[in-house]
Specification:
The protein is α/β, with parallel strands linked by helices. The chain is built from 19 helices and 15 strands.
């Protein structure tokens, strides 16, 4: 026989609060959510409510559900912790009114159940006072002079990128005194944002203190509600308009929470380190069975007074996939002499392809303008670098081929190639729309590499056809919007295991 458990009035009240907080509402009912929050919101807060972490920093795409999460966190803390001072902070008072107040989103967060808990509402100061002594106050960061007089038990920063930098400086010490939890949520800032330095400083701090802090990027498509036909159609329409205007940087920032450093001028906006950069060990394991069938290439972009760049790669002519496995990026003049850099290159080459013969097993190519390097290598080391033939067309054609390789994942780059990744991430046209001749030493090596292995559009077409025959008829469009069209409609059920 199971003993009957009698709960105290306090426990019964807490259970009622949790029941009211977690009732699914609105569009959540259409996808059969079993709780107020969708699965990805729950996942981002799981360690927060289990007590493993105290601070959260979420960079979110549009319509991910940040406003719903904000309301949930503040109401939950206020109701379950009597006498709590809970702060919702926006860049300005007017933002707080527009986002959470004038629409009654904060005051009526629990719908009809809200009145059970609220004692009073002050519209002018945007304050909700609860019957248990807690309150939620909405405030703008322009009021930084009052920040050092506040005593928070929890705070949520919305769109921190737009904050007055002095707000956090004044507010943080009082928050720290009580170890008050902090949740920062919003979209990422663009280059030149006035609060960029503080934003990155706090983000870096949280990343380094993962024992008490949690940092994550969330996209529009992590919200299951956005997979409903009407929502999905509208999002695809909005993205199509932005891309038609050439605003791919806005698409990536607002929907994928990804910053393209060059903005509209970025030359490789499709470059995604999470996709194109892979573990060196994983790549070496992938190619080891074909190691003798691969074409091995050592490419140099010599610079005696500037950067001396080298790339080491392997190309599988049977699959059409290219592997960029290592780099040399020498900036100090003492490291750019042939007597130092060529032996370094030899060591790297042999480590990648053990027991290989540098003369017979490696294709070696260098910028044809660096005749001095080619001559000195031959005279001192009997290593011949072929001059890279001029691209049959323009530099833009060479860069276009690299773009297509990235779009179709025909190239895998080792995580050893940090400088190549940096160049590709930051490579952008200048204000006049021209391609700059700077910070592109390893990108030039990438172009020479494609020349050395005779990589062209035909090679890429064959790679995509073999990888996915369905692409064959639409390949020429080179349209990387396809990912949106591949989003499946949601199933009708979720196993949330929602226990906090």
């Amino acid at each position: 026989m199971i003993d009957k458990v009698v709960l105290s009035k306090e426990d019964q009240y807490a259970l009622q609060i949790l029941e009211d907080l977690n009732k699914p509402r609105g569009d959540g009912l259409k996808v059969n959510l079993k709780t107020r929050l969708h699965p990805d919101q729950i996942q981002q807060l799981r360690d927060f409510y289990s007590g493993k972490i105290n601070d959260v920093f979420l960079s979110c795409g549009r319509k991910w559900g940040k406003s719903e999460l904000i309301g949930y966190v503040l109401w939950r803390h206020a109701l379950l912790n009597p006498g709590s001072a809970c702060y919702y902070v926006c860049p300005e008072n007017s933002h707080a009114r527009e986002i959470m107040w004038n629409n009654n989103r904060m005051q009526r967060f629990l719908g009809e159940d809200s009145s059970k808990y609220i004692k009073s509402i002050t519209n002018q100061d945007m304050v909700i006072r609860f019957k248990n002594g807690s309150y939620i106050r909405c405030i703008g960061s322009e009021n930084y002079m009052v920040a050092n007089g506040l005593t928070p038990h929890i705070a949520v920063y919305d769109e921190f990128k737009g904050f007055n930098p002095r707000w956090h400086t004044e507010f943080a010490p009082n928050r720290a005194a009580k170890a008050a939890p902090l949740i920062i949520i919003g979209t990422k800032p663009r280059a030149g944002n006035k609060n960029m330095d503080q934003y990155n400083e706090i983000l870096d701090y949280m990343r380094k203190h993962s024992n008490s802090c949690y940092v994550a990027d969330r996209t529009t498509f992590d919200n299951p509600i956005n997979h409903l036909p009407d929502q999905k159609r509208q999002i695809e329409h909005d993205i199509a308009i932005l891309r038609a205007r050439g605003e791919e940087d806005v698409v990536q920032l607002e929907y994928y929470s990804k910053v393209i450093p060059g903005g509209k001028r970025a030359i490789f906006p499709m470059f995604d380190e999470k996709v194109h950069i892979q573990s060196h060990n994983d790549l070496m394991n992938e190619i080891k069975k074909d190691i003798k069938r691969l074409e091995w290439v050592w490419v140099a972009d010599p610079g005696s007074t500037t950067v001396f760049g080298m790339l080491f790669a392997a190309f599988n002519p049977y699959s059409g996939k290219l592997y960029i496995l290592d780099e040399i990026y020498a900036k100090d003049q003492k490291d750019t002499s042939v007597g130092i850099i060529v032996p370094r290159g030899e060591t790297k080459a042999i480590s990648l392809y053990p027991n290989s013969n540098l003369h017979d097993d490696w294709i070696k190519v260098a910028d044809e303008a660096a005749a001095w390097f080619i001559t000195e290598c031959l005279n001192r080391y009997n290593i011949y670098f072929s001059p890279a033939e001029k691209w049959r067309g323009t530099k833009e054609d060479g860069l276009s081929l690299i773009k297509d390789q990235l779009l179709h994942n025909a190239v895998a780059i080792s995580d050893r190639c940090e400088n190549l990744a940096t160049e590709m991430r930051k490579y952008a046209k200048d204000d006049s729309g021209k391609i700059p001749k700077r910070d592109d030493h390893l990108i030039d090596c990438f172009r020479y590499l494609n020349l050395a292995i005779r990589y062209d559009f035909t090679t890429l077409t064959e790679y995509v056809r073999v990888k996915d025959p369905m692409h064959e008829n639409r390949f020429k469009s080179m349209n990387y919007d396809e990912e949106l069209n591949q989003l499946d409609d949601l199933g009708s059920d979720f196993d949330l295991d929602f226990i906090w």
